Amino acid sequence: MAKTYTPIATQTLTSNVSTITFSSISSAYTDLVLVASPVTTTSGNNYYLQFNSDTGSNYSDTSIRGSGAASSGRHSSASVGYVAFDSSTGLNNTVLTASIQNYSNTTTYKTILSRYSQASAQVNATITLWRSTAAINAITIGSDGGTLALGGTFTLYGILKA
Amino acid sequence: MAITSLKSGISTRSGMAGNTLIYPGSYDSIASASPAGSTSLTFSSIPSTYSHLQIRYMGVSSYPLISSNLGAGTKSHSLYGYGSGSAAYAWDPLAGGMYVAIDGNSGNVSTGIIDILDYANTSKNKTFRALHGRETNTADSSIHFASGFWNSTSAISSITITNNVSGSVAFGTGTSFALYGVN
Question: Do residues A63 and A126 lie in contact, with contact meaning Cβ atoms separated by under 8 Å?
Fold first, then answer.
């Protein structure tokens, strides 16, 4: 059996930044998985992805969320692909995982399955669409609050099927 | 001497006492399939040497169900959200089998991940969990959690995914499934 789930790159933030980017992503894998523990300095932010520097209105998302005793859903279209919602400030042990299946195929739009957990506040799951048939070779990660804060970690893995 | 390569894994420390042992990769690709035009696919002769199984897929275009050598399943539950609404919904289906997702649109690409934990353990029943989504930039979008179990302590050695409960709808072009073993 072939070993896979290969770490491609890791970024650990030593200062506040507006976005980070994984670039020159190899097309040698089947799926990509982003595992992150982001930190924010303002509450109510949503984390997003953009691909190949595309800032057009080519993204949409649908999500469900649980917070306290309540559940809810949402749908949006935007110039970014949201993958996590309503973050709280502080080092709240956030976990964000986003799977980008068949990311280098040039036939279909790209879909991203993500889960975001913030033990102090909520959990959510999101399906995100990037309406492009281009192979993904760069991923930008940001927060609509404008800041990815010191202490956040971001690792990109590649998975290759048999 | 420092060990610098363990098959496909990479070690950055020596194996001397006091250093953290770094093991080779523990996520193996077992098999994959492209079932476009077929109504189901089966992964058979699954080795029992892993702790867990994971199936990653895209392109499923109907109401996919999961079954195994243990049968169609005993119980399943789903939580999902869809469309432009602000609500989340729950469903307790098990009508003809255990649904991985409630996904009724045949024209759009879906994607999902299924985990089958402790699949070879012969002391407890077998469970799966799934996360599945379809995003179309329309109200016909959805995100699903699903879980189910087989009331059997036998090991799972084969898994079948059927595209819908009637078994009469074929997987669409571009559909692909990949099976992985996790230790």
Answer: yes
CA distance A20 to A17: 7
**Residue B160 C-beta-side C-alpha neighbours within 13 Å:** 16
Question: In this structure, how many other beta carbons lie within 10 angstroms of the beta carbon of residue A34?
Answer: 21
Query: Do B85 and A6 make contact, defined as CB atoms within 8 angstroms?
Result: no
Angle, CA A162 vertex, CA A156 and CA B4 arms, to 5°: 55
CATH number of B27-182: 2.60.120
Q: What is the ipTM of this complex?
A: 0.91
Spatial separation of the C-alpha atoms in residues A88 and B14, rounded to whole Å = 41
Percent residues over pLDDT 90 in chain B: 42
Residue A131 with chain B: CB contacts under 8 Å = 137
Pair B96, B165: CB distance under 8 Å = yes
Q: How close A17 gets to chain B, by Cα (Å)?
A: 30
Shortest distance, CA B111 to any CA of chain A (angstroms) = 7
Higher pLDDT, A45 or A90: A45
99-158 in B: which are within 8 Å (CB) of A?
A: 109-113, 131-137, 139, 141-143, 145
Tens-digit pLDDT profile for residues B15-63? 455 554 444 568 999 999 999 889 999 999 999 999 999 999 988 666 7
A38-78 pLDDT, tens digit each: 988 777 789 999 999 999 999 999 998 888 878 888 889 99
Query: Rounded mean pLDDT of chain B?
Result: 81
Q: Which of B180, B148, B177, B144 minimizes the C-alpha distance to B161?
A: B177
Residues of chain A with C-beta less than 8 angstroms from the C-beta of B79? 64, 71
How far is C-alpha B138 from the chain's CA centre?
26
Query: Is B9 an interface residue toward A (CB < 8 Å)?
Result: yes
pLDDT recorded at residue A57? 97
From the CA of A146, how many Å to the nearest CA of chain B? 25
DSSP H helical ranges for A29-150: none
For each of the domains in chain A, give its residue range(s) and CATH number, in order of start: 6-159 (2.60.120)
